[in-house]
Structure formats: C-alpha cells, structure tokens
C-alpha cells in the first residue's frame, strides 16, 4: 500500500494539523513509529488504533 505525502499511517495531514491535545489543547506530533500522537507539554501519547487516534485522556500513555 503506497502512501502519498498528504497521508501518514492512514491519518490525513489536514486532520493531523487540526487535532489538539484534549488535556491542554496543545499541539500534537506523530511519533517515530507512526502509531501515536505525542503532546510534549503533557508528556502523553495518544495511541492510534486501526488508523483512528484514541483521544481519551484516561487511556493516554505517560512518557517519562
């Protein structure tokens, strides 16, 4: 399956640009594995499952 540059891991770049951390409303970035969105301010990773970001704060993973 070929990805164009507008799409990353099934997530449209436009969607990625408008998503914000639900806890602080800060910017999110895609992690290196392209399976999660990272909020540097909150130190949280929101997992991407089946090409859908799980934006629930209670299910986010804390990073040290």
Q: How would you summarize what this structure contains?
A:
The chain has 1 helix and 7 strands. It is mostly beta strands and 64 residues long.
Key phrases:
five-stranded antiparallel sheet; mainly beta; globular; two-stranded antiparallel sheet; 64 residues
What do these coordinates show?
The structure is a single chain. The protein is mainly β and 64 residues long. Helices cover 9% and strands 31% of the residues. It contains 1 helix and 7 strands, in the order ββαβββββ. The protein has one helix at 13-18, and strands at residues 7-8, 11-12, 29-30, 36-39, 44-49, 52-53, 61-62. The strands form 2 sheets. Strands 3, 4, 5, 6 and 7 form a 5-stranded antiparallel sheet that branches. It has a two-stranded antiparallel ribbon with strand order 1-2. A hairpin with a 5-residue loop joins strand 3 (29-30) and strand 4. The radius of gyration is 11 Å and the shape is globular. The termini are far apart.
Topology:
Blueprint: E1 7-8, E2 11-12, H1 13-18, E3 29-30, E4 36-39, E5 44-49, E6 52-53, E7 61-62
Antiparallel strand pairs: 1-2, 3-4, 4-5, 5-6, 5-7
The average pLDDT is 86
User: SS-based structural class?
Assistant: mainly beta
Amino- and carboxy-terminal Cα gap: 34 Å
Task: Specify the number of helices.
Answer: 1
Tally of strands:
7
The SSE order reads: EEHEEEEE
> Approximately how much helix is present in the residues?
under 10%
Radius of gyration: 11 Å
Portion of residues in beta strands equals: 25-35%
So what's the overall shape? globular
Q: Report the uncertain regions.
A: 1-6
Q: Strand count, sense and closure of the main sheet?
A: 5 strands, antiparallel
């Amino acid at each position: 399956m070929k990805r164009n540059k507008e799409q990353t891991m099934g997530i449209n770049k436009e969607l990625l640009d408008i998503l914000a951390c639900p806890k602080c409303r800060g910017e999110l970035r895609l992690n290196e594995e392209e399976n999660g969105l990272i909020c540097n301010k909150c130190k949280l990773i929101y997992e991407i499952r089946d090409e859908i970001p799980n934006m629930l704060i209670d299910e986010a993973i804390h990073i040290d």
